[in-house]
Amino acid sequence: MAEVINMPRLSDTMEEGTVAKWLKQVGEKVEEGDILAEIETDKATMEFESFNEGTLLHIGIAEGEGAPVDTLLAIIGEEGEDISDLIGGSAAPVAEEAAVVTETPAVEAEASNLTEIPEGVEVISMPRLSDTMEEGTVAAWLKKVGDVVEEGDILAEIETDKATMEFESFYSGTLLHIGIQEGEGAPVDSLLAIIGPEGTDVNAVLSASSGGAVAVPAENKEAAVEAPKSDVTSQASNTVVSDGSRIFASPLAKRIASDKGINLADIKGSGDNGRIVKRDVESFQPNIASSTSVPESKTETASAPVTAMAPINLPVGEEGSEEVKNSQMRKVIAKRLSESKFAAPHYYLTIEVDMDNAKASRAQINGLPDIKVSFNDMVLKACAMALKKHPQVNTTWNNDTTRYNHHVHIGVAVAVDDGLVVPVLKFTDQMNLTTIGGAVRDMAGRARNKKLTPAEMEGSTFTVSNLGMFGILEFTSIINQPNSAILSVGAIVEKPVVKNGEIVVGNTMKVTLACDHRTVDGATGAQFLQTLRAYLENPVTMLA
């Protein structure tokens, strides 16, 4: 008896899956444990294995297409078995229509062109390259229409909400069509490109991939095929030098060079295959000879006679501005923080902490061999311990319910070139100071180099943002949802304080707790800060 296989739920947050690649085709034998397909979820691309044996009789979701969880994915049964009832009647009209038009081969061929993608042709969709990615921007195409593509070749650089990543081809063939031009953005699963045998009718593929709803007129086919070529050529013209050679540079390097007014043709790349990267632009020294005319003009101006009644020369110039396209990361930051600020009723609590004992304790700890602890590490440890004592702060608002998190995962806000990322220290309350310090340095370094994985930026229950190293004394932050609170940490300052009725020199630090009033009341937030202060002013209690 045939077995119906539905789109599986491969992660706790998965609502829809995309079939990245079928490893079995209709008519092939399937054994229990064979990999049927590679399915892209909201977190990763995973192999999906068969739990049944038989022949693959039907594929319900084509490669590159997405569908909600529990949608018909495939049917496995005995060869020749009637599965029209299992398909839900969707196959019956097709079969009936085929029977009617058997005597008209021309019409049948045209119908198949509108409903089936030709053999050997692969439709590539905009991939989901991070867990929060909803839209991607093509930063650069490294292949153009008509180029031969091998499996593993880098097709394009795609800018997500977290990083700019290279997207490689899983197929070999000729690049027949580009669906998203350089600098343009599109939602996940939008048509990105088509790869197949040279000479394939692209319009038929486009019609088939869109379900055959719109057929492209025959007289427009040539124009439709040629249009992407001209688009790509015009987009690539900005990266071609006078001798006709292409300049390969990362999007970040292009942006920095544009900001500094540097011609990429003057820079020698140190990346793979001579690719220009960020460090090449930052270390580039322009030719000094080109500026020799400036001192001469200054000398001539200085030597000109100045009369007592010389007219006042007002500056003359042209007003200028430029529109810089927002990166995917910047757009997602704006969206997430706007949602948090407008959805969660924020309020703020500020305290000043005596850091004299913390400074003395840190000096003693760092005096030990091979140990390096920062004040931020001490703040993170103190927060983790305070959260265990005040579980109301370690919560998430879910409208009808409030989720109390029994684990403590603290997010650490890290500034990067394009915005802000928040790597997460899992089970922070179980770490000692040296473990916290090493983990923060490692993750912050990889965050700046865009080497963090999506899993390392998920699951925080509380967040700490520290601007003290920039000399900021006090500030407020927007809650990083779904957290209920975020702590803003200022700089440690030396100033007069009153101790035992006398004015002495002390070291203090201001911290501000932003709370979501739906889950954390004022008294609860104040008690949390009291506990936090006790740990920071007496660091030995964190080691007990």
Overview of the structural elements:
With 544 residues, the chain is an alpha+beta fold. It is 27% helix and 26% strand. It has a six-stranded mixed beta sheet. α10 (375-389) crosses α11 (433-448) and α10 packs across α12 (522-537). The longest helix is centred in the middle third of the chain and has 16 residues, at 221-236. Mean pLDDT is 81; it is low at 89-114, 212-238 and 288-304.
Keywords:
single chain; 27% helix; 4-stranded antiparallel β-sheet; alpha+beta; 544 residues; 6-stranded mixed β-sheet; 13 helices
Quantity of strands, as a count: 26
Tell me the major beta sheet: 6 strands, mixed
Tell me the structural class: alpha+beta
User: Fraction of residues in helices?
Assistant: 25-40%
Distance between the termini: 65 Å
- Unreliable stretches (pLDDT < 50, length at least 5) are 89-114, 212-238, 288-304
List the total number of helices: 13
Strand content: 25-35%
Quick description:
With 544 residues, the chain is of the alpha+beta class. The chain contains 13 helices and 26 strands. The strands form 7 sheets. Strands 17-26-25-24-20-23 form a 6-stranded mixed beta sheet. Strands 1-8-6-3 form a 4-stranded antiparallel beta sheet, with no helix packed on it. The protein has a 4-stranded antiparallel beta sheet with strand order 5-4-2-7, with no helix packed on it.
Ordered list of secondary-structure elements with their pairings:
Layout: E1 3-6, E2 16-22, E3 29-30, E4 35-40, E5 45-49, E6 54-59, E7 66-68, E8 72-77, H1 91-100, H2 105-115, E9 122-125, E10 135-141, E11 148-149, E12 154-159, E13 164-168, E14 173-178, E15 185-187, E16 191-196, H3 202-209, H4 221-236, H5 251-260, H6 278-282, H7 293-303, H8 328-343, E17 346-354, H9 356-366, H10 375-389, E18 395-398, E19 401-404, E20 410-412, E21 414-416, E22 419-421, E23 424-425, H11 433-448, E24 462-466, E25 485-499, E26 502-516, H12 522-537, H13 540-543
Parallel strand pairs: 20-24, 24-25
Antiparallel strand pairs: 1-8, 2-4, 2-7, 3-6, 4-5, 6-8, 9-16, 10-12, 10-15, 11-14, 12-13, 14-16, 17-26, 18-19, 20-23, 21-22, 25-26
Helix pairs in contact: 10-11, 10-12
